[in-house]
Amino acid sequence: MRCDFFSKKSSHEYIINAIDHCLRVLDVGCDEGQIGKILIEQKNCKVIAVEIDPEKFNNLNFEVIVGDIENEDILNKINKKIDAIIFGDILEHLKNPDIVLLKMKNYLNPNGKIIVSLPNIAYWRIRRDLLFGRFGYTKNGILDKTHLRFFTFKSAIEMFTRC
């Protein structure tokens, strides 16, 4: 299955391929709902999403809970067990990603899974720029201005091991 809404082999494509047919899915930070739409249309999934920005999505054919996933009131609105929880480039925006991951385990079915994609601060272009004294923030990408933290492969694995 090829997703053409992003370039090359996007993380979105990997996320979609990691989810089986007919699952109940929670998409945290759904943005405009691209992943949810594909999961519904092509995999017959039941999708629920959480999105902090109410202007990001409209006319979606799935439930969107508006708010911050770190807010306990938002977590209380997720009232059913989930088969898969997606954090597609979201954890780097959270104040306490460890706490959110720990809490999300309570919403998973026994065989459920959490699917995460993270920008890698150790990417070779970032390292190259650092060698030349550049570390400029950008509108999107690895050095997105809204990122509160950065992950390397090692630091991400450490976080998942803790949680």
Protein described:
- The protein has helices spanning 11-17, 34-43, 72-76, 97-104, 124-131, 153-162, and strands at residues 24-28, 46-51, 63-66, 82-88, 108-117.
- It has 163 residues and is of the alpha/beta class.
- The chain folds into 2 domains: 1-117, Vaccinia Virus protein VP39 (Rossmann fold, 3-Layer(aba) Sandwich), CATH 3.40.50.150; 121-163, no CATH class.
- Strands 3-2-1-4-5 form a 5-stranded parallel beta sheet, with helices on one face.
- Strand 4, helix 4 and strand 5 form a beta-alpha-beta unit.
- The protein is globular and about 50 Å long.
- The two termini are 31 Å apart.
- Residues 1-7 have low confidence and may be disordered.
The structure class reads alpha/beta
The 3D shape can be described as globular
Percentage of β-strand residues: 15-25%
Classified in CATH, the superfamily of the largest domain is Vaccinia Virus protein VP39
**Fraction of residues in helices?**
25-40%
